[in-house]
Amino acid sequence: MMDIQKIVDGYLKALNITDDIKTLEDVCQLAQAHLKAFCFGNAKILVGETVPIDIESVYNNLVVKRRGGYCFEQNKLMYEVLKAKGFEVGQHLARIVNNEKPRIPLTHRVTLLSYQGDTYVIDVGVGFRSPGVVLKLNAPQPMMSHLGIQYHVFPVDEQRDIYTLQMIQKEEKFNISEFDLIANIDSDFEVSNFYCYMNPETIWRNHLIMSCLGDDAIYSLRDSSYFKIYDTHTEQIEIQEFKQFADIMQNELNAHYTRDELALLFNNYIKGN
Asked: Which InterPro entries does the entry link to (predicted)?
């Protein structure tokens, strides 16, 4: 098994981070760099790959091969890196709520960070809605992240310590997920991950979903619809040609796939939509 220090070193090298990670500001910078370097997505599921979530497999998939991944991979990597750096972190299952419609199982993962007496949530695995900052629970005001997008974490059930992660963009509020303060064990995530990539009814088996954070925009792909989300407007492009799709995947979403794999994705999820 690969040594965790080699994984941490390789991860930070891929992000061009040379300074040590010690403060909340450092963790925020780490999250932003992560979102820009490693695309979110399920393309590898749609070309027939499995999704192992042990740390070595996650590292090889995201950092070495640049295949992209979803929450069980993205947030696993962030959790293990912060843990290795000496931070007090917990791994937690969460529920994507999408403004409460529809209600789905606990098929999301977040990281909770305890720092100087306060608790913060980190989530680099919720696609184009991922916050690029560390968010304090019960903060009096939303926190600015990127492209004018703010985030807020507040309790929705104080007796059971259930919290909601909310995004605020152009004064519109959107509840992304909810989680509690009870930490989970690795096998909990194995079960949820297996459900996500093996259940034929899940979104991950039926739609191509990819995203990545750029310097001045969020790039987001859902099947044939490609969005460039700027701070002032959103540009929507309908993909028509294979070359157009391949350029987007490789050059804007930073997803590394062979020509044959891209052709399979194009024919099954772009051309037919």
From this structure: Arylamine_N-AcTrfase, Papain-like_cys_pep_sf
